[in-house]
């Protein structure tokens, strides 16, 4: 694999291919990347869209616009599990007081079905608590789950399980998990539950155990524990994609296994959280490895859902990050040459992909909150 920033030598080679000047400012600014972790995508037959929807799986790629998906598609030589989705739409991500959203407001719109203000998690723009689609599912007797690659104090898992008008009130957000009622929780961040990162002496892991949760910190324990369970599998975010093996995929599989044992179905939110972190850092290698791991996880979910026959799978993003452009590369070599124009989020609309029963509802150009409402309409 190659990662070269300001790669004058490689850019010179590219210059020959394109017939353009070899050392233009634009080309020397490109980052080139290839992965040695390519894979086959799954081959699944989708159940009829008219089947009854019993389970809903919402998958969020944080910071994942069409530009990031396009780059990953090239890296994997022109195939991704995203290719299996027959219905697609477009989601506008702005929040009530900013054109460019953060993950708090962007994810909350999907979770509660209404737009909210910048940095809000699980609350409306007027700061009142709003129950997420997971709470709605719980009230209907369904099981609920969250599996992420970030630490639990990060915005997206909190969007679905916690309530605060400011996403960086992280001591309060973590404390919300004690009473969140979510049956299956998997992610990272033991440091955020104790005084390693907390500003007080509360130990939220102990409080969750006292509230009846099985609190585990290793993959082995997670594979043994029953519901309700919280797996906090690292001190902070999970290790980066290349170092964690199949930890994230296994945490999702365990969630599907446990949640599907209920009588009334389940709703699960799965997030490829750290795609966004590395886009902020303009690190194409780490961002792409996170996205490819997310795509492998999508493949696992589709295989599971194809067997089940009553599961709607929706994949989208809270916003795009990095103003990434795919400017060079080729499919045969699985190589991309990209440019970042920003280290922040941007306001470009993001894709929505749907698969399974009910998926034909997921077409057109809509606000993120409308997509949230459509998702919630299948939880009944
Ligand atoms: Zn971000």
Keywords:
380 residues, alpha/beta, Alkaline Phosphatase, subunit A, 10-stranded mixed beta sheet, 3-stranded antiparallel beta sheet, 14 helices, 33% helix, globular, disordered N terminus, binds zinc ion
Report what the structure shows.
Helix 3 crosses helix 13 and helix 4 packs parallel to helix 14. Strands 6-7-5-4-8-2-9-14-3-15 form a ten-stranded mixed β-sheet, sandwiched between helices. 33% of the residues lie in helices and 20% in strands. The N terminus is likely disordered. The protein contains 14 helices and 15 strands. It starts with 7 loop residues before the first helix and ends with a helix. It has 380 residues and is α/β, with parallel strands linked by helices. The protein has a single domain, classed as Alkaline Phosphatase, subunit A (3-Layer(aba) Sandwich). Strand 11 and strand 12 form a beta hairpin. The longest helix is centred in the last third of the chain and has 25 residues. Bound molecules: zinc ion.
């Amino acid at each position: 694999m190659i990662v070269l920033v300001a790669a004058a030598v490689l850019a010179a080679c590219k210059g020959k291919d394109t017939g353009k000047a070899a050392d233009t400012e634009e080309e020397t600014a490109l980052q080139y990347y290839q992965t040695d972790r390519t894979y086959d995508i799954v081959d699944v037959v989708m159940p009829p869209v008219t089947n009854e929807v019993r389970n809903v799986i919402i998958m969020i790629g944080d910071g994942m616009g069409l530009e990031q998906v396009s780059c990953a598609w090239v890296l994997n030589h022109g195939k991704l599990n995203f290719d299996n989705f027959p219905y697609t739409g477009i989601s506008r991500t702005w929040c009530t007081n900013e054109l460019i959203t953060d993950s708090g407001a962007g994810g909350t719109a999907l979770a509660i079905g209404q737009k909210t203000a910048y940095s809000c998690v699980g609350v409306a723009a007027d700061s009142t608590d709003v129950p997420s689609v997971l709470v709605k599912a719980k009230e209907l007797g369904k099981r609920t789950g969250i599996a992420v690659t970030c630490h639990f104090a990060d915005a997206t898992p909190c969007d679905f399980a916690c309530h605060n008008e400011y996403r960086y009130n992280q001591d309060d957000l973590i404390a919300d998990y004690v009473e969140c009622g979510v049956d299956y929780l998997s992610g990272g961040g033991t440091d955020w539950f104790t005084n390693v990162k907390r500003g007080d002496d509360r130990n939220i892991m102990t409080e969750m155990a006292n509230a009846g949760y099985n609190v585990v910190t290793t993959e082995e324990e997670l594979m043994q524990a029953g519901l309700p369970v919280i797996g906090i599998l690292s001190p902070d975010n999970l290790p980066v994609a290349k170092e964690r093996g199949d930890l994230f995929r296994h945490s999702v599989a365990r969630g599907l296994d446990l949640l599907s044992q209920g009588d009334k179905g389940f709703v699960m939110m799965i997030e490829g959280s750290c795609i966004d972190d590395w886009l902020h850092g303009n690190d194409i290698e780490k961002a792409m490895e996170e996205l490819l791991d997310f795509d492998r996880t999508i493949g696992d979910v589709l295989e599971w859902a194809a067997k089940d026959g009553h599961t709607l799978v929706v994949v989208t993003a809270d916003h795009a990050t990095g103003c990434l452009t795919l400017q060079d590369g080729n499919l045969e070599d699985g190589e991309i040459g990209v440019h970042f124009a920003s280290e922040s989020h941007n306001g470009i609309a993001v894709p929505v992909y749907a698969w399974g029963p009910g998926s034909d509802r997921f077409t057109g150009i809509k606000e993120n909150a409308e997509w949230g409402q459509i998702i919630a309409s299948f939880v009944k």
